[in-house]
Write a structure and sequence with these properties.
Length: 294
C-alpha cells in the first residue's frame, strides 16, 4: 500500500513538473519582446543565403522538393539577389526542362499539365491538393480527398498533424494565385487558417521546422503584422552558426546528439541545418525584409 502511495505521489509530482515546464515555455514563447529591426533581418537573410551557396552542390542533386525550390524562386524574385536567382536557374536547367513534369505549373503559372488522379494518388494528400490548385482540373477537384481540403475545417480531423494548416493554406493560396474557385470562399478559408496558425504559434512553443513554416505562411498570406515580435525573434535565435535552420529544437547536448523536440514529440537525434527548414527561413526573411523597407 505504501509503495502505491509513493507511486501516486511521484506521478503527481511528475505531472505538476511537466505542467509547470510547459506553462513556462508558453509564457516565454509569448513574452513581450522588441520587434527585430531591418538590420537584424537583413543580416540573418545574408547568413542563410550563404548557407545555400555553401551547400548548393548537395541541394542541386535533390529534385524531390519542388515546394522548397519554389520558395527559392520566390525569394529571388522578391529580393533580386543574384545568388538566389542563379541557384534557382541551376535547378531549372537540371530538372524543369521536361514540359510534362507534374510540378512545372508551380514555377511557371502560365503553363498547364494534364493530370489523371492515378498519376498523383501515391502523393501525400496536401501534394494532391497542390496539383489540383496548379491545374484547376475539374475532375481532380471532385475527388473527395482533394475537395475536402478546400473546407476551412479540414484540419479539425487531423489534430496530430502539426503542418496540416500550413499545408492547406499553401494549397488555398495556390488556388487564389490561379483564380481557381470562389474568391470569397477562398479568402474566408485563408482567414480561418491564419487564425488557426496564430493559435498554434501561441500554444506550441517548440521551435521546430513547422514553427518557421507557420510564421512563413502568415507572412506569405498577408498576415505578417500578426506575427508576434517574440515569434520572429525565436526564429532568428534558432538560426544555426552555419546560417541554416534545422527541423529540431535542441534541449540538451549529449555529445554528437541532442535531446530534442521534433514535430512528433521528444527524442535523441543529431542536430544539423537542412534545406527544408532553411528554404522556409529564406523566404520568410525575404518577405519581411521587403515589407519593412523604408
Amino acid at each position: 500500500m505504501k509503495s502505491v502511495r509513493i507511486l501516486v505521489k511521484a506521478g503527481l509530482l511528475a505531472g505538476l513538473t511537466g505542467f509547470a515546464a510547459y506553462a513556462y515555455m508558453v509564457w516565454n514563447n509569448n513574452r513581450p519582446a522588441p520587434q527585430p529591426d531591418q538590420a537584424q533581418l537583413v543580416a540573418a537573410l545574408e547568413r542563410s543565403i550563404k548557407w545555400l551557396e555553401t551547400n548548393q552542390i548537395a541541394l542541386l542533386s535533390n529534385r524531390k522538393a519542388p515546394t522548397l525550390w519554389y520558395f527559392i524562386q520566390k525569394a529571388g524574385e522578391l529580393t533580386g539577389d543574384p545568388r538566389l536567382i542563379n541557384l534557382f536557374r541551376h535547378h531549372e536547367e537540371r530538372f524543369l526542362v521536361n514540359r510534362f513534369d507534374l510540378w512545372r505549373p508551380l514555377f511557371y503559372p502560365e503553363s498547364w499539365i494534364p493530370v489523371r488522379y492515378e498519376n498523383i494518388a501515391a502523393l501525400p494528400d496536401y501534394n494532391r491538393h497542390f496539383i489540383y490548385a496548379l491545374t484547376c482540373d475539374e475532375d481532380l477537384g471532385q475527388e473527395p480527398d482533394i475537395s475536402a481540403q478546400n473546407n476551412s475545417h479540414f484540419c479539425d480531423s487531423k489534430p496530430l498533424s502539426p503542418a496540416c494548416a500550413t499545408h492547406q493554406l499553401m494549397g488555398i493560396r495556390l488556388l487564389q494565385r490561379n483564380e481557381c474557385g470562389n474568391e470569397e470562399e477562398l479568402q474566408y478559408t485563408v482567414q480561418h487558417l491564419q487564425q488557426r496558425i496564430r493559435r498554434q504559434l501561441t500554444w506550441d512553443p517548440r521551435i521546430v521546422d513547422v514553427y518557421i513554416q507557420r510564421a512563413l505562411m502568415l507572412a506569405e498570406s498577408g498576415a505578417g503584422s500578426s506575427i508576434k515580435p517574440v515569434w520572429l525573434q525565436n526564429v532568428l535565435d534558432a538560426q544555426r552558426a552555419d546560417g541554416g535552420w534545422g527541423g529540431l529544437d535542441p534541449l540538451i547536448s549529449l555529445g554528437s546528439r541532442h535531446l530534442v523536440f521534433h514535430p512528433a514529440g521528444i527524442g535523441i537525434r543529431p542536430v544539423n541545418s537542412d534545406f527544408h527548414a532553411t528554404a522556409q527561413g529564406v523566404l520568410l526573411l525575404s518577405i519581411l525584409t521587403q515589407s519593412t523597407r523604408p
